[in-house]
């Protein structure tokens, strides 16, 4: 199929982008790796595509004490090779699993968040790290946690006249460790199940905070505070993560794997990556 007819504009200022989106008949175009197939299948029929790649403030990344801020038009490949992104270890862990290199050369980090695919890696990272999404719209700019931004499968808190401006990931601190794993039938395919973990330890090496986010297991990334789980079951995490899987994995089965298979997979990955994150946190604490 071919896309329905549409107009195309490429403003150079954010205010002009918002002006083009006024009325709700426009659609933001950044990388287009998700949008173009939707248009080709005529699942979406916007009157105007508003290309944001010419807006300078949206095409860069900055790093300071507030975190690593990624503009909405910055390519995933640029972030993957940005030295400043090393301060957010989960980006380096996950980025090679985001589609294929060719897709990352066009796709954007914020575009993945805005698309909100339940099996996508970047929204899961943002939720686990408590990243902040910045939006601009008719009422001005606003910021919200990534967990609140993603509201369901392919659904976000952004309105039809809003544009995602940036996402800011907190920098890793001493005493923090991270884990990432997913399983797909082929590299670059959507994950059958995946987990992202962040663990913090205190001066004595004891766990003070632990978060786990699962993706590919529900209609959105699912985040849980697993501090008590890790403290109580550090010696043998599998039974505890298996019980957690029963509670959070609710995606239906398909030709790639049943719900039961995904629960078993999630339980194994969760136990492994929580353990790895804990060991890395203790190593970073000792090295700080």
Q: Please give the CATH class of the largest domain.
A: Alpha Beta
What is the string of helix and strand elements?
EHEHEEEHHHHHEEHEEEEEEEHHH
Mean pLDDT, to the nearest integer, reads: 94
CATH architectural arrangement of the largest domain:
2-Layer Sandwich
Class derived from helix and strand content:
alpha+beta
Say how many strands there are: 14
Q: Please report the number of helical segments.
A: 11
Give the termini distance in whole angstroms.
Answer: 56 Å
Q: Residue share in helices? A: 25-40%
Unreliable stretches covering 5 or more consecutive residues: none
Widest sheet: strand ordering: 4-5-10-6-7
Give the percentage of residues in beta strands. 25-35%
- Structurally, how many domains make up the residues? 3
Q: Could you name the CATH topology of the largest domain?
A: Uridine Diphospho-n-acetylenolpyruvylglucosamine Reductase, domain 3
Q: Main sheet? A: 5 strands, antiparallel
Principal-axes shape call: globular
Q: What integer value in Å does the Rg equal?
A: 19 Å
């Amino acid at each position: 199929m071919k896309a329905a007819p549409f107009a195309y504009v490429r403003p150079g200022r954010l205010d002009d982008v918002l002006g083009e989106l006024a009325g709700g008949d426009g659609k933001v175009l950044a990388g287009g790796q998700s949008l173009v197939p939707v248009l080709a299948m005529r699942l979406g029929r916007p009157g105007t595509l508003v290309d944001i790649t010419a807006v300078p403030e949206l095409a860069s990344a900055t790093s300071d004490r507030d975190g690593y801020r990624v503009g909405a038009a910055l390519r995933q490949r640029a972030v993957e090779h940005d030295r400043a992104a090393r301060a957010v270890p989960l980006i380096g862990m996950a980025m090679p699993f985001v589609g294929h290199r060719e897709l990352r050369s066009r796709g954007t980090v914020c575009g993945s968040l805005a698309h909100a695919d339940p099996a996508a890696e970047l929204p899961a990272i943002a939720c686990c790290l408590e990243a902040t999404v910045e939006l601009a719209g008719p009422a001005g700019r606003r910021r919200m946690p990534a967990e609140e931004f993603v509201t369901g499968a392919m659904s976000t808190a952004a309105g039809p006249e809003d544009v995602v401006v940036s996402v800011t990931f907190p920098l890793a601190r001493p005493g923090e460790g991270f884990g990432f794993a997913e399983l797909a039938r082929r590299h670059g395919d959507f994950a059958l199940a995946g987990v992202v973990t962040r663990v913090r330890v205190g001066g004595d090496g004891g766990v003070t905070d632990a978060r786990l986010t699962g993706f590919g297991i529900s209609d959105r990334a699912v985040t849980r505070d697993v501090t008590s789980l890790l403290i109580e079951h550090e010696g043998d995490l599998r039974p505890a993560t298996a019980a957690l899987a029963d509670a959070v994995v609710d995606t239906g089965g398909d030709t790639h794997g049943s719900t039961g298979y995904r629960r078993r997979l999630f339980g194994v990955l969760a136990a492994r990556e929580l353990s790895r994150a804990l060991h890395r946190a203790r190593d970073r604490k000792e090295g700080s």
